[in-house]
Amino acid sequence: MYSIIDVAEKAGVSKSTVSRVINNNGFVKEETRRAVEEAMKELNYTPSYFAQGIRTGKTKTIAFIHPDSTNLFYNEMLGGVEEVALEKGYMVLICNTNRDPESEINYVRELQKRNIDGIIFSTYQMNDENLKYFYRLSKTLPMVFMDNVYTHNEDVSVVISEGYESSRRIVHRLYEKGCRRIAYIRMQDVGVVNNRYEGYMRGLEDCGLKYETELVHVAAYKEIHKSHIKMGMDGAQNLLLLPEPPDAIMASIDTMAIGAMRYILDQGLRVPQDIKIVGFDNIELSTLIRPRVSTIAQPIRKLGVEAAKLLMYKLQVDNGFNQRITFDPEFIEREST
User: What does the mean pLDDT of the chain come to?
Assistant: First the structure.
């Protein structure tokens, strides 16, 4: 097995120059970089990040913390995170907190024991204790947040999609299609999607439609063993039991919309002729089922890419640099409307 010294000798450079090439740290002439990379290739040399971690305290590892492995949204976002991380020589640890705020802190403490270099963090709901904990932590450990829990704080890095105006516009669109009883299926106490629900309520007001609590089904997200599809099915079941059922259903996320549509079709009703369905996210599954689901589309993979790019900058240049990146979703109309 060859060592970094062997690479240096073959490339005709110093050991420190090889180290700078490996870590992409410091200036190296392009021809020198090519010579080192060619020597590494010929010797089949792979740097030991474990050994480097002992010397530098860095492990070339980041964590992607998310709240729910049943939500396909996070799986698609992970693809964007990994694309950037692997290109920069970082591995990604995936941590599922199962919708539990306490697990979020416990996970991070375990990650710190393993000298994690940085974190991309997603949550459903953050309590005051967690807000203070992660804010303090972000001052010493590079972090990028993927939700709107720090909406009014410019001293952290955030990558999100807008939800209020886009949801508001969809109510208008459904109204223009003749819908007058527009229902909503939402997740209970999930702060990161509250703005979508608030946009729905404002849209009703804009269109002169009365807000009716019976047209809003609240799914308890803390039921860990219940999938979002099942939550959507339960929501549709309750809404169809109303004396005057809805003629359209919006949902906080696509998987709930898919569950609602499945239940509606199982009852012999037609989508969109009897009830129109709109989701939020644009996960791949929404294009694979029939009817295909209309959705407020987030650029899911791009969210992961931009978060990882931002984290890499904080890791390699300046953790004190913070940026807020907000994407505007677009409505993709498919067969369900």
Answer: 91
CA 180 from centre of chain: 33
Query: Which helix (H) or strand (E) covers residue 101, if one does?
Result: helix 101-113
Cα gap 121→126, rounded to integer Å: 11
How far apart CA 139 and CA 203 sit, in angstroms, is 39
Residues listed for the chain: 337
Alpha-helix residue ranges (DSSP H) falling in 114-225: 128-138, 164-176, 194-206
Kindly state the tokens that stand for 223. Answer: 């039921």
> How confident is the model at residue 151, as a pLDDT?
66
pLDDT 10s digits, 229-272: 999 999 999 999 999 999 999 999 999 999 999 999 999 999 99
DSSP β-bridge partners for residue 164: none
Check: CB of residue 120 under 8 Å from CB of residue 62.
yes
Report cis status (omega within 30 of 0) of the bond before 272.
Answer: yes
269 alpha-carbon distance from chain centroid: 33
Query: Can you name the residues that pair with 237 across neighbouring β-strands?
Result: none
Locus of tokens 């694309």? 83
DSSP 8-class letter at 270: -
Residues 72-121 pLDDT 10s: 999 999 999 999 999 999 999 999 998 888 899 999 999 998 899 999 99
Measure the CA–CA gap between 253 and 246, rounded to whole angstroms: 18
Nearest alpha-carbon partner for 184 in 251, 244, 236: 251
**Residue 292 CB coordination number (10 Å):** 15
Closest CA to 212 of 221, 224, 200: 200
What is the C-alpha separation between 228 and 261, in angstroms, rounded? Answer: 12
Q: What is the pTM of this model?
A: 0.82
Domains of the chain with bracketed CATH: 4-47 (1.10.260.40), 61-161+302-329 (3.40.50.2300), 164-297 (3.40.50.2300)
Strand partners, 183: 249
Structure tokens at 228: 């979002």
For the segment 208-222, what is each residue's pLDDT rounded down to a tens digit? Answer: 999 999 999 998 766
